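Hello, quick one for you while I still have it in my head. A protein chain has come my way and I'm curious about its shape. Can you walk me through what the tokens say about the fold? No rush at all, and the record is pasted right below.
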Amino acid sequence: MDIPSKYDPQRAESRWYDYWMQHDFFSSKPDGREPYTIVIPPPNVTGVLHMGHMLNNTLQDVLIRKARLEGKNACWVPGMDHASIATEAKVVAKLKEEGISKSDISREEFLRHAWEWTDKYGGVILEQLKKLGCSCDWSRTKFTMDDDMSASVIKVFIDLFNKGLIYRGHRMVNWDPEAKTTLSDEEVIYEERQGLLYYLEYEVVEEDGKTPPLGGGGLVIATTRPETILGDTAICINPNDERYQHLRGKKAIVPINNRVIPIIEDDYVDVEFGTGCLKVTPAHDENDKTLGEKHNLEIIDIFNEDATLNSYGMHYEGKDRFVVRKEIIKELEAKGHLVKTEQYANKVGTSERTKAVIEPRLSDQWFLKMEGLAKPALEAVMKSGEVKLYPKKFENTYRHWMENIRDWNISRQLWWGQQIPAYYYGDGQDDFVVAENIEEALKLAQKKTQNPELTTQNLKQDPDVLDTWFSSWLWPISVFGGILEPDNPEVKYYYPTNDLVTGPDILFFWVARMIVAGYEFRGERPFENVYLTGLVRDKQRRKMSKSLGNSPDALKLIEEFGADGVRVGLLLSSAAGNDLLFDEALCQQGKNFANKIWNAFRLVKSWQVADIAQSEASKIGLDWYSTRFNQVLTEIEDHFSKYRISDALMTIYKLVWDDFCSWLLEIIKPAYQQPIDRKTWNAVIQLFEKNLKLLHPFMPFLTEEVWQHIAERKPENALCVADWPKGEEFDANLVSTFDFAAEVISGIRTIRKEKNIPHKDVLELKKLDVEDLGSTMDAIITKLGNISAIATVDKAVDGALSFRVKSNEYFIPISGAIDVEAEIQKINEELKYTRGFLQSVQKKLSNERFVNNAPEKVVELERKKAADAEAKIETLEKSLASFE
């Protein structure tokens, strides 16, 4: 096979991925081998590849490829999440473009459009992952809306309901007015925003029924949401607040709508906040709802589902809440109710998906009791260690969430998703049954009502769907059919899985819930290790996002730098749990590394091989690199065991770039137009192959390309399915001896560079061998330093250039090596300049005015300049004396 002069990533990537797929290297079936299983964090079906996906999936591919090389039955299950909110929003937007409103079509018609959209656009990200080199078992691709996956979700719902863990309740929920659905607490992101605190005066009804005029006769409340006054049903004061004793038992009048409301007392009111008077709007605040229930207050909901005002909004009906906020303040001011405004910073809840400001709303919803379910999952991480988090710093976050867990709101007011299997046969609160299908529901309803006359026409299924996370929390089990068939061979073989790689932002959303599900439905953990990656940020530490325009096109990066270059660039700066400050220069570094390996391979293949004797330098060099390789392999395995993937790559990077390319190849390289001995060439090819095995999980395409160029191979001998190197004993003393020799060679090269001595000029080296290291590495020093001979002396050599390595001093006689006159002239010129510079600095420092008035840092800098100049003069004078 001809070896191209340059490595072509695009050609290699398409060629070898097709080759791997053609020979089914990624597929897995249960057999007698040890399984190694990863389930992909399913990306949204609406998604396209971004930098976070690139990092996360590269890490998974590294782990799965290493396991495959280790001979394990590696199974990486890919798939997608149906993403209820995001996908429904996409479909609604598409229909709107076509002039169709969701409200004008049936559920069945909408779902047909949703499936058409999914079939057309869904799965794009999985195809993009192939470009990255991800070695998933694509035959196992799952979608959370597949029939069997949906059936698993429904079965789990029914099971939990029958256990009394799922219930329906009228609760205050987080309402997303853009998606028009409720959200769980974990899907609300709180942002600190600067707003206003509005002080409003309410008229007080006196005992005689009169209301004193505004401007001091009423009571004043402070609110950040003046539009909600239209839903006020009480004013609350603290019974211990002396300021408001005169208001006890009286009533107040709500501005604008003139509703008469009671003034109630409760020690919940913070006398220090605002004015100490609290407006109570039970329909639009969780705490107000609690007060309302305690004091039997009326509940008035003033908002429509899209956060426009309803008929309770009077002349503001149909207007958006934020528009009303601006307009109602003008009206309140005009009518004398606005006392003042103040700047006020508060935390505003926003939807994780749509970014809309959340509206608290009373609604009938389905909930899952979490307190009891969470206990085994909490113990698995915090006590038994059955599930380990990397890095450990996230354990405290996990504990806090799990110890303060609230019931999970699992219903969503959407059509895209698994429809809740509850069937209503009446209007009462408990007039429903839960069943897999309407036929089963009918039997249960007839039995519950003792009415055999009921028909399916009398049943109406709950229109809501289940939270998307209620699908994905089953992912490690359901992808292997473990919910529907708990004892099937696949789930018994592959479950529990080994490693999970994901982001800390979904530690509770997904990771904790999967652990909960594992113990509840399988009685064991879903995975052993959780590797939590950092977020990918730009150089300014900003999170990458479309809105900021700071997220590069992932596919264009692959096109420019090659998949291997991008993978290396991402991983070199990606320690677990720490954010990655992405810079395209990292990908260039990865590309350069690929080119370095390619050029090293071309160099080795270019050498003419002959049946000649092996040189001493080559023999020593090969022995050293072999033991160095085994030393590094031990370090790499330790890094992998602690999920320090970035450190593992950096260790391999240094081994290949420094030890192999910069040292070993130089040691064994034949003289110009001379052949290399066959023994050395064969050995270096074997070591090259070992390097490729270490690199393959990180750089799969390049390594397979080089591997296949080294020799013609049958498919079963492809690098993708080769054997991971086995660790052997190593001689640490040999490594340290070489390190010493490398310093000696560097010392020789430094002198050559400083004194402009060409490498072709042969030098003599003498050593004052204090440590008596012997001559083990002399052959290598002689070759790489271009030394004619190395002699041991018992005292310093006069008139020689010298350098020190540890306690050993080395001397290079200068006779004939350099132009002495030119060197003396050069040193004298430098001495003259440095002395002049020192004089000017000393003059400045002798000026009291400068020293007393200049900033301390400036004076210190000048003193450092003087000290540096003095040290340089001393060195130059010693160099000059060596020529005398």
Observations:
- Residues 821-881 form one domain.
- The mean pLDDT is 92.
- DSSP finds 27 helices and 31 strands in the chain.
